[in-house]
Design goal:
The chain is an alpha+beta fold. The protein has six helices and seven strands, in the order E-E-E-E-E-E-E-H-H-H-H-H-H. It has one domain. It is about 35% helix and about 25% strand. The longest helix is centred in the last third of the chain and has 18 residues.
Length: about 190
């Protein structure tokens, strides 16, 4: 990772793990803007951002279905809580479909007909269950790409399907992701550092 970008992740304790995937922090310790690319990870993020040159901000970011280009300004410190989808309804108490990019898994033992599940996902998260599953499969494939495995391992029909799905969500083919020039893809850099 870029020596001036500091990224840390902490997993929550058992009592929060059903609702919180992780807590993370990103700091730009340089005097220059850093350009990064956020990748879909199937989570809702609540950001707390501060810097000497800008007001304190709290931002709720919906699910992502594509790569998101962003700039991390000099001196910025971001702290975030990455929520699992059940947290949206149970903790935040609001729908985030308008923030789109997203979807959710249900607790074991609950049965809903497929149409009801899809209506729920679209109403609460702004995407279908199928789209959310694709995001989760993309996120899981990042672990393989981070370790140089540029071939499908997660139920992709073939190499072409794998490449199209990776490019759809990240804006880059697997080889470009694996190289991760200038640590542009923060989530991929974090996976490599683990």
């Amino acid at each position: 990772m870029d020596e001036h970008l500091e990224f840390r992740q902490v997993k929550p304790g058992k009592h929060l793990s059903a609702y919180v995937d992780n807590f993370w922090m990103l700091c730009n310790h340089s005097d220059e803007r850093k350009f990064v690319t956020g990748l879909p990870d199937g989570r809702i993020d609540l950001f707390f951002t501060s810097a000497t040159h800008m007001p304190y901000q709290v931002i709720l970011l919906g699910l992502a279905t594509t790569a998101d280009q962003a700039t991390v300004e000099p001196g910025v410190k971001m702290f975030a809580v990455s929520f699992r989808l059940p947290a949206v309804e149970n903790i935040l108490g609001q729908k985030v479909a308008g923030l789109v990019n997203g979807a959710m898994s249900l607790p074991a033992g609950i049965f809903w007909p497929p149409r009801q599940i899809n209506r729920y996902f679209n109403e609460y998260f702004g995407v279908s269950l199928k789209a959310y599953c694709s995001i989760l499969r993309f996120r899981a494939s990042l672990n393989h790409i981070a370790h140089g495995k540029l071939f499908p391992e997660l139920n992709f029909t073939d190499q072409n399907h794998f490449i199209k799905e990776i490019k759809k969500f990240s804006g880059a083919v697997p080889g470009v992701l694996a190289r991760n020039q200038n640590d542009r893809f923060i989530l991929l850099s974090a996976i490599k550092d683990q």
